[in-house]
Amino acid sequence: IGLLSIEYIVLESVTENTLKTSRELERNLRKLRINETEDALQQLSNEINRVNLPKMQSKEARNYLLEVLEEFRRRYDARVKKQITESESSFVVEIEFTYIPEEPEDVIQLLSYMKKSISPIFNVTGVDFRYNKNIRSVVIEVEMIQPFVGGKYVY
After folding, report:
1. Among positive and negative, which fits the CA dihedral 83, 87, 89, 93?
2. In angstroms, what CA-CA distances link 110 with 40, 95, 99, 119?
C-alpha cells in the first residue's frame, strides 16, 4: 500500500506538472498569435498610409463614385450595365463604354490610369478591339469599386 501511495503521489505530481506546462504553452501560443496579428495590422496600417488610401464614409464614397461615373458617362458616353450595389464595405457599379483613341498609345494611357487608380478601383472585365469603316475603337467593360470605412470589412 505504501508503494502504491508513492506511485499515486508521483503520478499526480506528473499530471499537475503536465497540465501547468500545457497551460503555459497555450498562453505562449496565444501571445505569439496576438503579436503576429498586431504586426500584420501595423504593416497594413503602414501600407495604407504609404499609399495615402482615402478613408471615406459610406455616403461620401457613394457620392464620389457617382461623380466619377458621371464623368465617364460624359467623357466616353459610358452606359451602366449593372446598377450601384453595396458589397462588403464597397460600392460597386458595372459600366461599358466605347473609346475611340486618336493614337494607339491613348488606349494604353487610359488603361494605365485605371490600373493605377486607388479611388475608385477599376476592375477591367472586358476589352474588345474593333475596326469598322476606318474607325478603330475599343469597347471596355469595367467594374468600378469604391471602398468605404465601416460595414463588413473595416479598415
Report:
1. negative
2. 34, 15, 9, 15
Element (H, E) at 8: helix 2-51
Quick one: which H or E segment has residue 132? strand 121-132
Report the C-alpha gap between 54 and 90 in whole angstroms.
13
The CA-based angle 15-18-22, given to 5 degrees, is 140
What integer pLDDT is reported at residue 155 of this predicted model?
42
Cα angle: 41, vertex 46, 50; to 5 degrees: 150
pLDDT tens per residue across span 6-30 = 777 777 877 888 888 888 888 877 8
Q: How far is CA 155 from CA 2, 54, 77, 88, 104, in A?
A: 65, 11, 34, 12, 39
| pLDDT < 50: residue spans in the chain | 153-155
